[in-house]
Amino acid sequence: MYVDVHDPTYPDSDGNPMADSTQQFDWIVTIKEGLEALFDDRPDVFVAGDLLWYYTEKVARDHVAPDAMVVFGRPKGRRYSYRQWLEGGLAPQVVFEVYSHTNTPAEMARKQALYDRLGVEEYYEYDPRTGSLKGWLREGGRMRPIPEVDGRRSPRLGVTFEAPPEEDALVIRRPDGTPFGTAAQAIRQRDEEKIRADEAERRARAEHRLANAAHRRAEKAEEWAEAEREKAEAQRLRAEVERERAEAERLRAERLAAMLRELGLDPG
């Protein structure tokens, strides 16, 4: 885990707020936390949001605070700021900026030019009010505009962007198709999954009880059928005994009649 040593020469705040509106704040958190979760199992990927990035040693005024940034090749860890000369000279490879109502086109153009000069490989600007998502990709030593970001896959991140021109409609999908979400959405999803799991468990218990009841009914039906079979067998045996008794009686009568005839007596 990287441990940053605080240096007051490089303040950890520029005095500006992280966001100028709740809408901008929500999207900064959604993107930053989504990126953090995406690379949770990568100890060599550092993700930060609204962290001062100092890019020139001994020149504290040379700084910028991207809304979200990803640095491949640097360890995770808490930092007061990102001082590039202490980070192996690595500039963040991917940067995100989220528009607020206070941003001007000139300001965003200056940021894009700065990130280009500093060597950023992928840069994305999102305006949640209009749904506009712009992107730049480094090719041939400079960042060039991406003609159409909607539906495009980020080479570095592996995520796919869905950017319909509607307010708050951006969807960033992980490689497995799972969308980035806010903490509130994650909690709501967790609660909904628990409700579904509890309901499934209740249904399973009810179905188990029904199955047991059906099994008991089947056992009783089998017992009744066995009793009926035994009753029928007993009746058959009684009938067989009666037939044998009647046959024995007939034979006895015939022998008696034959003996009487031999004696010259009329058996009738």
Structural class label: alpha/beta
Name the CATH architecture of the largest domain: Alpha-Beta Complex
The CATH class of the largest domain? Alpha Beta
User: Per CATH, what is the topology of the largest domain?
Assistant: tt1808, chain A
Q: Tally the beta strands.
A: 13
Proportion of residues in β-strands:
15-25%
Morphology call = rod-shaped
- Average of the residue pLDDT scores: 91
Distance between the termini: 123 Å
Quick description:
The chain is of the alpha/beta class and 268 residues long.
List keywords for this structure.
268 residues, alpha/beta, tt1808, chain A, 2 domains, 6-stranded mixed sheet, 3-stranded mixed sheet
Textual characterization of the structure:
The chain is an alpha/beta fold and 268 residues long. It has 2 domains: 2-180, tt1808, chain A (Alpha-Beta Complex); 182-268. It is built from 3 helices and 13 strands; from the N terminus they run βαβββββββαβββββα. It has helices spanning 22-38, 105-118, 183-262; strands at residues 2-3, 45-48, 53-54, 63-64, 68-72, 77-78, 82-83, 94-98, 122-127, 132-139, 142-145, 160-162, 171-173. It has a 6-stranded mixed β-sheet, sandwiched between helices. Strands 4-3-7 form a 3-stranded mixed β-sheet, with no helix packed on it. Strand 8 (94-98), helix 2 (105-118) and strand 9 form a beta-alpha-beta unit. The N and C termini lie far apart (123 Å). The model has no long low-confidence stretch (mean pLDDT 91).
